[in-house]
Design goal:
This protein is an alpha+beta fold. The chain contains 20 helices and 17 strands.
Length: 550
C-alpha cells in the first residue's frame, strides 16, 4: 500500500505528460511538416541536472535514442545542419510541453524577427539573462523601447574609437609566449583581454580584474566567470532561499558570485555618478557614463510613457550592465578561440590578411581612418561566427493572437496559422551551414564575404539569398554589434601584425596529424552561453612573433 502511495504521483505525472504529448502531436500535424517527437524538452527544469546521467540513451539501437540530442538548449551547436539536411528547412519538435517549429527558411525567419510587434520572445528565453533585473534583452513592446532608448545612446562612434584603441593596447600588453596554448589557454587569455577592454571602455575602470577588491570575497573576473560557467544553474537556483550551510557547495558558490557581482556593479555606478558630480575634467565617457547620464536626464524630466516613468530603475540598470558584460566577455572569448584555430589551420588566410594590413594598417592611425579599410579582418569574424556562432536557436511566438507565417512544407511553400502557445525557432546553424553557401559550406573561407569591384576595391557583403544572423537583425539587432566588430578587428589586426599563428605539433607528430587533431577538437562543440569545444586541452596553437622583416 505504501509503495502504491509513493508511486501514485509518478504515475499521474507520466499520464499527464503523455496526454499533453498526444494533444500536441495532433496539433503539429496541421503544419504538414516533419515531426520529431521528443519525450523531454530542454525547458524541463527537472531534466537539467539529470540529463548527463542519461547520455547512454543516444547509443540505443535502431535510433531509439535519437531524440536525446534535442533535449538540451544548445542542441543545434551539436547537431549543426544534420537534421535540416535530413528533414528540410522546417520541422517540428513535439514534446509534452508544446510544439516548436524549427526553421532556417528565410521567409519564415524574416517574418518572425522583423515583425517584433506580433512576434515576441517567450518568458523562458526572454528571462534567461534577467538575473539582476529586466533589460534590453528581456523586455518587449513599450518596455523594450524604454530600455533601448537609454542603452542605445551608449554605443556612439566616440565609444567605438575607445574600443579600437583599447583593443590594440591590450594585445600589445599581453605576453603570449613562444610555447603552445591549448584551446582552453586561448580562451582564458582572451577572457582577460575582453574583460579589460570591457572594463575600460564600458565602465571606465582600468584596474586589476583578477585581484579581489576591498570589501569583496572574489575578483570581478572570478565571480563573473562562476556565473557564466554555471549560467543555467544560476538562473534556476541563485535565488533559492534558505541558510547557506543547507545548500550544496556549487549553489553556495553561485549565490556568493551573484551577490559579489551585484556589489561590483553598485560600485561602478556609484563611482561614475560621484565622478560626474565632481566634474572630472578630461575624463573619457564610458558606456556606463552615457547610460547613467541618459537615465538621469529621463529621471529629472520625469517623462512618462504609458503612465510609467521612462527612466530605468536601479535593478534595470544592473540588468542591462549584466547583459553588456555577458555579451562583451563571454562571446568575445568564444569567437577568438575558434578564429585563432581556423587561422592556424589556414596560413593562406593569414597571408591574405597580412596583405591588407601592410596596405592599410598603422597602429598609430586613428580609428575612423583605418577600421573601415580592414574588411578582410572583419570577414574573418563573419566566417568564424558562421561556423561557430554563440546563439544556436532563438525562438519567437505570437504575442497575443494566432499569426500566419510562410513555411516550406513537404509539398512546397505554404502559409500556416501558428497559435500563441506554439514557438518558432530560428535554426542559425542550419542556415549558416546550408548547402546554399556552396560546396565548401562546412569549410573556413572568409573570402566568401568579400565583394571586389572592377576598380579593385573590396567591401564586405552577405549574399541576400542566404541566412546569416549571428547578431540577429531587424529592430532587435544586438546593440553591441558594432562594439564586437571593432574589438575583433582591432585585436586581429594587432595580433597578426606581430604574430603568425601555427598549429601546435606534439612530440613526434606530423603537421598533418596535428591539423587533423585540431579539426577533430573543433568539430565537437557544446553550448554554455556561447560555443565551447568539449576537449580544449586536446589541441592548441602557437603564436610565433614575426621578425622585423615579416
Amino acid at each position: 500500500m505504501l509503495l502504491l502511495l509513493l508511486a501514485a504521483p509518478l504515475v499521474l505525472f507520466i499520464i499527464y505528460r503523455l496526454t499533453n504529448w498526444t494533444r500536441h502531436y495532433l496539433a503539429a500535424r496541421q503544419f504538414d511538416l516533419p515531426i520529431i517527437p521528443i519525450p523531454i524538452a530542454f525547458d524541463d527544469v527537472w531534466w537539467l541536472p539529470l540529463r548527463p546521467l542519461f547520455s547512454w540513451v543516444q547509443h540505443l539501437p535502431l535510433g531509439l535514442g535519437s531524440w536525446y540530442v534535442y533535449t538540451e538548449m544548445g542542441w543545434p551547436i551539436v547537431d549543426e545542419n544534420r537534421t535540416s539536411l535530413r528533414l528540410g528547412e522546417n520541422f517540428v519538435l513535439c514534446s509534452p510541453n508544446g510544439n516548436t517549429i524549427v526553421s532556417c527558411y528565410m521567409p519564415t525567419i524574416n517574418q518572425i524577427f522583423m515583425d517584433h510587434k506580433n512576434w515576441g520572445m517567450p518568458p523562458a528565453q526572454s528571462q534567461l539573462f534577467a538575473v539582476y533585473g529586466q533589460n534590453v534583452s528581456s523586455t518587449h513592446g513599450e518596455e523594450w523601447k524604454r530600455h533601448r532608448k537609454i542603452t542605445a545612446g551608449a554605443f556612439t562612434e566616440g565609444a567605438m574609437e575607445g574600443v579600437w584603441e583599447e583593443s590594440k593596447r591590450r594585445v600589445r600588453g599581453t605576453e603570449f609566449g613562444s610555447g603552445a596554448l591549448s584551446l582552453d589557454g586561448v580562451r582564458n587569455t582572451f577572457n582577460v583581454v575582453a574583460m579589460h577592454v570591457l572594463a575600460n571602455v564600458a565602465f571606465g575602470q582600468d584596474t586589476e580584474l583578477e585581484t579581489v577588491g576591498q570589501g569583496h570575497r572574489d575578483s570581478l573576473m572570478g565571480c563573473l566567470g562562476t556565473i557564466l560557467q554555471n549560467i543555467l544553474l544560476t538562473l534556476v537556483f541563485s535565488s533559492v532561499p534558505g541558510p547557506e550551510w543547507m545548500l550544496p557547495r556549487t549553489l553556495r558558490r553561485l549565490k556568493a558570485a551573484v551577490a559579489e557581482f551585484r556589489l561590483y556593479m553598485e560600485e561602478f555606478i556609484l563611482r561614475d555618478m560621484q565622478s560626474g558630480k565632481a566634474g572630472s575634467v578630461g575624463k573619457k565617457k564610458s558606456l556606463l557614463s552615457a547610460m547613467v547620464q541618459a537615465n538621469e536626464a529621463e529621471k529629472h524630466g520625469m517623462v512618462k510613457a504609458g503612465g510609467r516613468p521612462s527612466f530605468l530603475t536601479e535593478s534595470e540598470l544592473y540588468g542591462n550592465l549584466f547583459v553588456f558584460n555577458l555579451a562583451g566577455y563571454e562571446t568575445t572569448a568564444s569567437t577568438f578561440t575558434f578564429a585563432l584555430s581556423y587561422l592556424a589551420l589556414h596560413p593562406e588566410v593569414q597571408a591574405w590578411i597580412l596583405e591588407e594590413l601592410d596596405a592599410h594598417y598603422d597602429p598609430a592611425s586613428p580609428y575612423a581612418e583605418t577600421y573601415p579599410k580592414l574588411v578582410r579582418c572583419l570577414a574573418v569574424m563573419y566566417e568564424t561566427l558562421r561556423l561557430a556562432g554563440p546563439a544556436p536557436l532563438l525562438v519567437r511566438q505570437p504575442v497575443d493572437t494566432p499569426q500566419e507565417v510562410e513555411v516550406l512544407s513537404r509539398h512546397g511553400p505554404k502559409t500556416v496559422v501558428v497559435p500563441p502557445e506554439t514557438l518558432i525557432g530560428g535554426h542559425f546553424y542550419g542556415g549558416h551551414l546550408s548547402p546554399k553557401w556552396g560546396s565548401d559550406a562546412l569549410e573556413f573561407n572568409p573570402k566568401r564575404f568579400i565583394d571586389t569591384a572592377a576598380s579593385g576595391g573590396e567591401t564586405l557583403a552577405v549574399p541576400d539569398d542566404r541566412m546569416y544572423m549571428p547578431w540577429i537583425f531587424g529592430p532587435r539587432v544586438c546593440p553591441g554589434k558594432k562594439f564586437s566588430q571593432v574589438e575583433f578587428v582591432g585585436i586581429v589586426a594587432q595580433l597578426l601584425m606581430d604574430h603568425r599563428i601555427e598549429v601546435d605539433c606534439r612530440a613526434g607528430e606530423s603537421e598533418s596529424d596535428a591539423r587533423g587533431r585540431l579539426r577533430g577538437v573543433l568539430a565537437e562543440k557544446y553550448f554554455n552561453v556561447s560555443a565551447y569545444v568539449k576537449h580544449p586541452h586536446a589541441a592548441g596553437v602557437r603564436l610565433v612573433r614575426r621578425s622585423k622583416s615579416g
